[in-house]
Amino acid sequence: MIDIIVFSLIGIGVLFALLRIIIGPSTFDRVVGLDTINIIITALIVFLAYYFKSTLYLDIALVYGILSFLETIIFARFLEGQQ
Amino acid sequence: MSIIGNVLMIIGSVFLAIGGFGVFRMPDVFNRIQAGTKATTLGAFSLLLGVGFHHPEWFLKIGLIIVFIAVTNPIGSSVLARAAYKKGAYQYKKEQVVQTRKGDE
Questions:
Q1: Under a CB-based contact definition with an 8 Å cutoff, are residues B79 and A76 in contact?
Q2: CA–CA separation, A46 and A62 (whole Å)
Q3: What is the mean pLDDT of each run of 10 residues along chain A (83 residues)?
Q4: How would residue B97 be classed by pLDDT, with cut points 50, 70 and 90?
Q5: Could you say which of B20, B79, B83 has the minimum Cβ distance to residue A16?
Q6: What span, in angstroms and rounded, lies between the C-alpha atoms of B76 and A39?
Q7: How many domains does the structure of chain A reveal?
């Protein structure tokens, strides 16, 4: 029961952030939507660890968090340096 | 213990949905950064703590992920906001409401 509630609420959040990525007027809006989706998916992977009862997903969530942080920083520095 | 975990997970997923909807709804880049970072940070903390209440032996790794999110998420949002401000992104200004009284013309 709780799986259905959590998965559907997370799906609603990802859907609206994805709509922002599609219709976003500027590049910054798209990067903000991508950052939001990354945080939501980091939480979702930890929930998958609970759902499948496996410890392996926690390591995947940690590595995904590190890579999404680097992605946001690199996008921001690239957009800032572009004249 | 299990009931606390379920309640925390539902609260966390509600906050994640609100964060995604805030990114869709807000009129401005800076408002979108605000809505998309704070609400999802709280939602991720709550969801991770809920999973940790279900499995107390995972608490070390979950605490590590929580500390990592708490450190990196504000850094990313502030770097993004600085880049948007330097590039002169569009800033939303609310129109001023002019209030007139009856005898005032």
A1: yes
A2: 9
A3: 89 91 87 91 91 90 91 89 64
A4: low
A5: B20
A6: 11
A7: 1
**For chain B, which residues make up each domain, given as ranges?**
2-89
Q: CB neighbours (10 Å) of residue A7?
A: 15
How far apart are the CA of A29 and the nearest CA of chain B, in angstroms?
A: 6
Q: How far is CA B67 from the centre of its chain?
A: 16
Partners of B67 on chain A (C-beta within 8 Å) are none
Give the pLDDT score at B46: 92
Q: How much of chain B exceeds pLDDT 70, in percent?
A: 89
Angle at B50 between CA B47 and CA B52, to 5 degrees: 115
> Tokens for B79?
């770097």
CB contact under 8 A, B16 and A43: yes
Give me the amino acid identity at B31.
Answer: N
Asked if residues B16 and B44 have their Cβ atoms less than 8 Å apart, the reply is yes
pLDDT-based confidence at residue B98 (cuts at 50, 70, 90): low
